[in-house]
Structures are given as structure tokens and as C-alpha cells.
Amino acid sequence: GDSVTQMEGPVTLSEEAFLTINCTYTATGYPSLFWYVQYPGEGLQLLLKATKADDKGSNKGFEATYRKETTSFHLEKGSVQVSDSAVYFCALSELGGSQGNLIFGKGTKLSVKP
Amino acid sequence: DAGITQSPRHKVTETGTPVTLRCHQTENHRYMYWYRQDPGHGLRLIHYSYGVKDTDKGEVSDGYSVSRSKTEDFLLTLESATSSQTSVYFCAITPDIVQAQYFGPGTRLLVL
Hints:
The complex is a heterodimer of chains A (114) and B (112).
Chain A: E1 3-6, E2 11-14, E3 19-21, E4 23-26, E5 33-38, E6 44-50, E7 56-59, E8 62-65, E9 75-77, E10 86-94, E11 101-104, E12 108-113
Parallel strand pairs in A: 2-12
Antiparallel strand pairs in A: 1-4, 3-9, 5-6, 5-10, 7-8, 8-9, 10-11, 10-12
Chain B: E1 4-7, E2 10-13, E3 19-25, E4 31-38, E5 42-51, E6 54-57, E7 64-70, E8 73-78, E9 87-94, E10 102-103, E11 107-111
Parallel strand pairs in B: 2-11
Antiparallel strand pairs in B: 1-3, 3-8, 4-5, 4-9, 5-6, 7-8, 9-10, 9-11
């Protein structure tokens, strides 16, 4: 079945460092891809999305490009802030089977130190 | 933010008791989902609904049932709670399966 693999955390960075969180996927067909962010004690918030190959999703300085040839959707940010500390989840939409179910990676915890 | 609320937000119960969690939306979205979040597992789908009275099972549906009698409400019931159902439960909604899902704030359930 469809699956998402993202890099194990935790990731600890200094403020203004460059961030990459790797995400690769396995899917039949052409799923939509998402990054969600979860701040402590809160629900998941959509960070960005891409619905087809070569699409770039972006929001709040974060970017990710849908790479069909490498089945990847890596999250990047050029200069992280302390306020970016959170858990980040990569996900794909499973278009077959459960209607629109999201398949999630296990999450990557990011801590940004001042 | 999408209009989605969950109740209760926290609950402690004992093994063997029934528990019902409520998800309420004000967006009139067709699709609603229940997930559970556990350390090391990310989020996993329990049940979902694609319309009033239309529901189906997800990956981890054993021990759970759902009902949707109105567009705005999606109920998750643990018929007889077990300690393995201690988790954080999230509801999500979307108007279309190719679009993003929007999540509620979660319910933290502890089964003693």
C-alpha cells in the first residue's frame, strides 16, 4: 500500500540555520502531497501542499517540490526561527481505497535554539 | 481556520466503560475523518465518513464505531474502552478528497 517515510528526528538547529526535512513516498497513481505542522498541545495545521509533479508548495518561508522521478517532497526553509520549533508531518492523499485518507509519516521534531 | 471543534478535550475513563467523542464542523464539508495519534506511529485512520449515514473503516477500526446523522457531527464511540485506546484523537474535515484536510484541536483520552 501507499506509504510515507520521513527522516527521523529530533532535529536541533540554531536560529537562522537552513532546514531540510526529507520525505519520500510510495504510491500508486498520482497522490497529492502535504506538509503539516503540529505545535505543542495543538492539532495539525496545513503548512503547504502540492497536487502534481513539479508543483512547488510554499508558505511562511517553507518550501517543498513534488518530485515524481525521485518520489520525494522534501521540506526546506532558508532561515529557521525559534517559533518554528514543532513536529512536522509529511503526508499523501490516498486516492484509491479509503476516500481521501491521508497517509502520514511518523513526524520529525524540530527544535530551534536561539 | 476551519470551523471544527472536538469535545471533550480531555477525558479520563476506566477500562470497560463506553466513551463517545464528538466532532462538530461549521464548514458543511462532506468528508470527515477520525485519526488517532500515538508516539512512533504518526496518525492512523480509524473511521471516515463520506456523507450523512455513509461511513467506512480505516486502518485501526477494531474496538471503535462511528455515526453521522447530520452533516456537521461525526461521533466516535469506544464500545468498551481498553488501555490500548489511550491516545490523542483528531477529527479532520475536507470538502473534496483531493484537497487538504483540516484538523480539530484533538481529544486526549486516558483509559485506566
